[in-house]
Design brief:
single chain, 68 residues, mainly alpha, 0% strand, elongated
């Protein structure tokens, strides 16, 4: 481990065993459904805004998504 982050220190204070599993043993944990949905939602909005900025779609085509 090359540096200490706030989340690492906080995890250690809450549960040293959890810290070891995550930072030392590198045990993978499943991604929460809400996190996966939120990431997909943000990726979709980013793609729509990028397409609009690059002129690949018209403002009216993305207005329903962005509520402009």
């Amino acid at each position: 481990m090359n540096h200490l982050s706030y989340s690492s220190i906080s995890t250690y204070h809450l549960c040293p065993r959890s810290w070891r599993y995550h930072y030392v043993d590198k045990v993978k944990t499943p991604t929460a459904t809400s996190l996966a949905f939120g990431g997909a939602f943000h990726d979709t909005i980013e793609a729509a805004i990028s397409a609009l900025a690059l002129g690949k779609v018209s403002p009216s085509e993305t207005a329903w998504l962005l509520k402009l």
